[in-house]
Amino acid sequence: MKRLNPRGRYWMLYILPALTVYLLFMVYPLLDSVRLSFYSGNFAGRVFVGFENYIRLFTDPVRSERFFNAFGNTWYFFAIHMVVQNCLGLLFAVILTQPGMKGSRIYQTIIFIPTTLAVLVTGYLWKLMLNPIWSEGVLTSMGLGNLAQPWLGTQATALTAVSLVSSWHWMGIPTIMFIAALRGINEELYEAADIEGASAFQVFRHIKLPLIAPVVGIITILTFVNNFNAFDIVLSMQGVNGPPGFSTDLIGTLFYRTGIAGQHPIGIPEPGMGAAIATIMFVMLAAVSMFVLNFTRTKE
Known about the structure:
Helix content: over 70%
Radius of gyration: 24 Å
CATH superfamily: MetI-like
């Protein structure tokens, strides 16, 4: 250490606490989960089976059907968040950062308030509001009686409803991040564009969007990782089985049923199979995250 930094040989001590916590609670569980994916059996006894869990996951008819159904549902869940949550967040950020915009702080607070609520509370309240038994009277009095439908009880609309509720809940975070990025742009660029007679859309297309591309990449990665780890919103609104007919089943709920709670009707958890699902998702998340980071870094 003295050779690396002769001015202060004790610099390593400052990062040891954080490094120790990171290794114990992040790196070790991750590596142990990968190791566990090569074993079969429950906590009473495990047997090394190699890649059997991965083979069963993709070849067993029931398991592969559940896995690819949850995998597709999670991608749809992510797409709704990108289109609704992040696009509306960018729109709100552009509006709230316009020169002369009055009350922008108040609007930012209103948009961010849902994020401060617990996800379980948000999901439960929206489950009540989307229940036609509770909402029919209010909607009928407003002339919107046709909207009193079992949105969460129909396979065609259940996942969309859950995705929109989750997008509404988390919209405040990308909005605030976009606002911070837009306010960091040099005002001289706007003045030059105004002299050249650029329209508002041209300013957004050629100045704002390219300069906030790194932030767009970070928000995309955060959305991607959080959506593929989503669990609590489905739990609070639909339950861990992803009803109706597994139409709201995500990778998070599938992992919970497989590795922790156990599948119905036997109810015996398979930690090895659950670890195999988690390992596959980790590899995919890492690959996509690195791709997005490299892409946005070139933009920066």
